[in-house]
């Protein structure tokens, strides 16, 4: 019988969308067993949540310090192998730093931290340690997003010359116009969300999607953000020009006040031989465009796809798979890495990706606040 990894979870209790996404993903390929955690800031609520969801109650902890102290007191073979951090942004750094200091593997929600400086501290903390660290940019788990990555790597598109990514949501529109309603979401609270709402919540997904699929690194950004009201300290919309090199440019558009939009993430990549486009709300279709050829529609599960893409599906062609499956693929990649099994570098975003995401957020905000100027992103 295959040994399962012991998984602890911090956050994600109650009716948390992210919480259920991570739990289902962890169970999907039967590599993990959830053995405990701290699902809520109140111990009693965590305990009740565990009972209601059929989870063990003997390893429900009050907080991160309680978890680490009691887990470290257990024999090494009984401790949690990996801990998922799915709390609001402002809690990430302290939790992750303590987990790394005590040699736990980590799966962390994005954004990695609330500041670039914190992210760099985490990067330093993991140096020299043989630890697996994943940042859950969930959309990289879709089979056809992974196929995009492999098509670019194979040279099918030729030299990349233009990238266009858009991530539009509308859920903050009913909230932003009322000062009292703004208080109902932590995303608009800089104490909990950090300096940014839109860029940190969804813009960073779009940024990661570009670098994941193209293999290119953004060199400079120029941004124009929208706060809509002077008394709102958080960006809720923004457009960012991207410069990869002298002759490779792009644009990133993100919004939380795009009225009527649901989860409109889309990406278009154009090379000198071909172009392709993909939309998250219709994730099983990848459109490949070549000069003087009919539009090609690529779908998951077919033999013409790459090994990475094919390994990311569980069902035969024509059976739709979605966001839970994408997250499950990331958890699968992490399990392989922890167990020392072979895996593709495209199976999960790493701490390095999380650090670059924070660098992007702060560079874009600096660009806007200094009069929409070009700001360089570190390429260490």
Automatic annotation (TrEMBL):
InterPro entries: Gfo/Idh/MocA-like_OxRdtase_N, Gfo/Idh/MocA_oxidoreduct, GFO_IDH_MocA-like_dom, NAD(P)-bd_dom_sf. Residues 8-137 form the Gfo/Idh/MocA-like oxidoreductase N-terminal domain. Transmembrane segments: none annotated. Residues 145-275 form the GFO/IDH/MocA-like oxidoreductase domain. One of its GO terms (molecular function) is nucleotide binding. PANTHER family: CONSERVED EXPRESSED OXIDOREDUCTASE (EUROFUNG), OXIDOREDUCTASE. This is Predicted dehydrogenase. It comes from Pustulibacterium marinum.
């Amino acid at each position: 019988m295959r040994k399962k990894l012991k998984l602890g979870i911090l956050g994600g209790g109650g009716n948390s969308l992210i919480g259920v996404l991570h739990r289902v993903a962890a169970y999907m390929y039967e590599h993990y067993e959830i053995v405990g955690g701290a699902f809520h800031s109140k111990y009693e609520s965590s305990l009740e949540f565990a009972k209601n969801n059929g989870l063990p109650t003997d390893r429900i902890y009050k907080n991160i310090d309680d978890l680490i102290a009691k887990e470290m007191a257990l024999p090494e073979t009984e401790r949690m192998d990996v801990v998922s951090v799915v709390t609001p942004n402002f809690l990430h750094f302290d939790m992750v730093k303590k987990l790394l200091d005590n040699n736990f593997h980590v799966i962390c929600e994005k954004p990695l931290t609330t500041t670039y400086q914190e992210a760099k501290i985490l990067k330093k903390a993991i140096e020299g340690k043989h630890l697996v660290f994943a940042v859950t940019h969930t959309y990289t788990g879709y089979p056809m997003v992974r196929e995009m990555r492999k098509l670019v790597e194979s040279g099918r598109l030729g030299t990349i010359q233009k990238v266009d990514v858009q991530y539009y949501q509308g859920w903050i529109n009913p909230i932003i116009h009322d000062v009292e309603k703004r208080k109902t979401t932590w995303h608009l609270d800089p104490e909990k969300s950090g300096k940014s709402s839109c860029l940190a919540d969804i813009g960073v997904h779009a940024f990661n999607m570009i670098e994941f699929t193209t293999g290119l690194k953004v060199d400079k950004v120029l941004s124009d953000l929208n706060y809509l009201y002077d008394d709102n300290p958080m960006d809720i919309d923004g457009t960012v020009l991207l410069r990869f090199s002298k002759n490779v440019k792009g644009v990133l558009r993100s919004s939380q006040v795009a009225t009527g939009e649901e989860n409109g993430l889309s990406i278009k990549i154009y090379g000198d031989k071909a172009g392709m486009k993909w939309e998250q709300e219709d994730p099983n279709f990848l459109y490949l465009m070549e000069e003087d050829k009919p539009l090609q529609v690529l779908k998951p599960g077919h033999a013409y796809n790459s090994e990475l893409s094919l390994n990311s599906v569980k069902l035969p062609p024509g059976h739709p798979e979605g966001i839970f499956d994408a997250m499950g693929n990331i958890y699968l990649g992490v399990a392989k890495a922890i167990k020392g099994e072979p895996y593709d570098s495209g199976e999960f975003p790493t701490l390095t990706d999380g650090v670059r995401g924070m660098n992007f957020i702060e560079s874009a905000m600096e660009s806007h606040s200094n009069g929409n100027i070009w700001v360089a992103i570190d390429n260490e």
